[in-house]
């Protein structure tokens, strides 16, 4: 399972490394508890997946994908279309951003909750992130973490989910070494770097 963001009535956004056959995918909006019917859910099949044409499976560069939905997802009291940033406009370093998903909540072992979780983690500079990862951070990536402290992060199962900063979706959960380690921040696709790609379709 991967997370995502609803961009419009017929498109959602996720990570390219979540790509699989469109016919096998279902996009569900406003599902806050996987074990119960919240009464707010809207579901759609997927007509096609549109991973970025330059997605690199080795480096995870350009790890972004659009999903064309087969039926309409409408706005409601529980569903709002994602606000996106302007092209190449990013939050200031140190901004607290909110990451949400159903991923593993255990640093050691595994604990996958039925309820949607969220955590606030500060944005760090790409220079600091590159120092941690030995040069593996590209312009289309951004990093969140508590360097030297750890304890807050996205994890396995959160892939493709949203990173919300200042009311806009600035990131897509992509990769990292472990989860919430002090020396390895989480790495996310920088949405502002891909606005022209998104605007081709949405």
TrEMBL record:
Gene Ontology CC entries for this record: extracellular space
Keywords per UniProt: Disulfide bond, Hydrolase, Protease, Secreted, Serine protease
Major location (coarse): secreted
One function term, GO molecular function aspect: serine-type endopeptidase activity
GO BP annotation list: proteolysis
SUPFAM superfamilies registered for this protein in UniProt: Trypsin-like serine proteases
Keyword Acyltransferase: no
SMART domains: Tryp_SPc (SM00020)
Recorded superkingdom: Eukaryota
Location relative to the cell: Secreted
Family: Belongs to the peptidase S1 family. Snake venom subfamily.
Protein name stated in the entry: Peptidase S1 domain-containing protein
Domain Peptidase S1: 1-202
UniProt key word Acyltransferase: no
């Amino acid at each position: 399972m991967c997370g995502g963001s609803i961009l419009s009535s017929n498109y959602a956004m996720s990570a390219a490394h979540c790509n699989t056959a469109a016919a096998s995918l279902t996009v569900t909006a406003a599902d806050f508890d996987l074990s119960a019917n919240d009464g707010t859910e809207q579901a759609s099949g997927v007509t096609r997946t549109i991973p970025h044409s330059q997605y690199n499976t080795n480096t995870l560069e350009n790890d972004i994908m659009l999903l064309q939905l087969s039926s309409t997802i409408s706005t409601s009291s529980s569903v709002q279309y994602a606000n996106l940033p302007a092209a190449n406009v990013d939050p200031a370093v140190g901004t607290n951003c909110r990451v949400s998903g159903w991923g593993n909540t255990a640093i050691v072992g595994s604990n996958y909750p039925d309820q949607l979780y969220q955590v606030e983690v500060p944005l760090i500079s790409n220079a600091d992130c590159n120092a941690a990862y030995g040069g593996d951070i590209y312009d289309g990536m951004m990093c969140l973490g508590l360097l030297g402290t750890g304890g807050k992060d996205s994890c396995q199962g959160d892939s493709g989910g949203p990173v919300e900063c200042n009311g806009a979706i600035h990131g897509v959960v992509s990769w990292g070494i472990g989860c919430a380690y002090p020396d390895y921040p989480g790495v996310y696709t920088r949405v502002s770097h891909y606005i022209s790609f998104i605007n081709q379709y949405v």
